[in-house]
Amino acid sequence: VQQNKDPPGQEAPEVQEERERVRSAMGSLQPQEAVIVVNSLRKEYEDKKACSMFKKKKKVAVRNLSFSVKKGEVLGLLGPNGSGKSTVMHMISGDMAVTAGEVLLQGCEATAPPGQGGLGHCPQEDALWPELSVRQHLEAHAAVRGMRKEDAAVLISRLAKDLDLQKHLNTPARRLPAGEARKLCFALSILGNPTVMLWDEPSVGMDVKGQPMETAVRSKARAAILSTRSLEEAALCDRVAVLVAGQLRYIGSLEELRGRFGTSYHLEVKLKDAGQSDAIHTEILRLFPHAARQERSYKIPMEDALPLSQSFSKLEAGIRKQTI
Ligand SMILES: Nc1ncnc2c1ncn2[C@@H]1O[C@H](COP(=O)(O)OP(=O)(O)OP(=O)(O)O)[C@@H](O)[C@H]1O
């Protein structure tokens, strides 16, 4: 293990506490309740844009990251584009080498008996074999997880029903619409209920938003990390971690995060026709009764705007009817 020499720098108190928890978990010889332990993780990429002929430049994508996820817990991973979420997932799954630090996964050894152990990863990029059908993908994964053929058949038909994938069971992956391909990747990650599940923006493009995720999250038998941009999905998680520029800025409950960093949304309105301004104002107050007007924008209290998906649908309907 390459030791991480990065000083943690200034960290929020709950981030420091989490680092301490990881340190004591690493020092203990007792079996831990933590299933995923990420200890002082660092990832450097070669920065191709900044490289010259003589000098290789490095880009640090993840700096000195420590957290743990215990059995039964789902940790939401939030953060802006490029903050390092996918990099963290790839390092935990083992398909990307770490630059420094270590990842410990307890109880998901490949040698575990069928139905126990294992790791399910739904990466951001669909990792599918173009020529294999949905059923063949599911069967291949079930075989790798050591399931008996008969058990796998039952599980596959249940999963296909839950995710509304039945009509695509014989479709080769290359012909699947994007949302269905995403569903298949998600199905592969939960097939057989692996001990560790990693979901990187799994529901992007899915038409059955939220629901399969909810079912998976509620199963609670294992430890999971869900990287998401959806507040609804984040609300399903037991804790959330916020990553900014490769560093952990917050870890704890979503409620506390909301309380600490935000109480309202900002809605910007661009008018095609200035004469419509009063009608639009009335419509916005109808949708969000407590919206406060501020020149060209509105401050909307969070309670008025949640769930966000519904707010977006209402706004889109207003745009279609040209009331907004
Ligand atoms: N293979 C690579 N080579 C060089 N830089 C990379 C590589 N992969 C990612 N990066 C850089 O590392 C940083 C973290 O990227 P990463 O994809 O992990 O972020 P992310 O939070 O998952 O973003 P997004 O939400 O857009 O997927 C970014 O600045 C990205 O440009």
- Report the CATH superfamily of the largest domain: P-loop containing nucleotide triphosphate hydrolases
- Per CATH, the architecture of the largest domain is 3-Layer(aba) Sandwich
CATH topology of the largest domain: Rossmann fold
The beta-strand count equals: 12
Keywords: ATP-binding, Membrane, Nucleotide-binding, Transmembrane, Transmembrane helix, Transport
Family: Belongs to the ABC transporter superfamily. ABCA family.
Protein name: ABC transporter domain-containing protein
GO molecular function: ABC-type transporter activity; ATP binding; ATP hydrolysis activity; lipid transporter activity
Provide a compact summary of the structure:
The chain has helices spanning 13-27, 85-93, 134-144, 149-162, 178-190, 211-219, 231-234, 254-261, 277-287, 302-305, 308-320; strands spanning 34-46, 58-70, 74-78, 100-105, 119-122, 196-200, 223-227, 239-244, 247-252, 264-268, 292-294, 297-301.
Explain the overall architecture.
It is a single chain. The protein is α/β, with parallel strands linked by helices and 324 residues long. 34% of the residues lie in helices and 23% in strands. The chain folds into 2 domains: 13-259, Rossmann fold (3-Layer(aba) Sandwich), CATH 3.40.50.300; 263-320. The protein has helices at residues 13-27, 85-93, 134-144, 149-162, 178-190, 211-219, 231-234, 254-261, 277-287, 302-305, 308-320, and strands at residues 34-46, 58-70, 74-78, 100-105, 119-122, 196-200, 223-227, 239-244, 247-252, 264-268, 292-294, 297-301. Strands 5-6-7-3-8-9 form a 6-stranded mixed beta sheet, sandwiched between helices. It has a 3-stranded antiparallel beta sheet with strand order 2-1-4, sandwiched between helices. A 3-stranded antiparallel beta sheet has the order 10-12-11. The relative contact order is 0.13. It binds adenosine-5'-triphosphate (ATP).
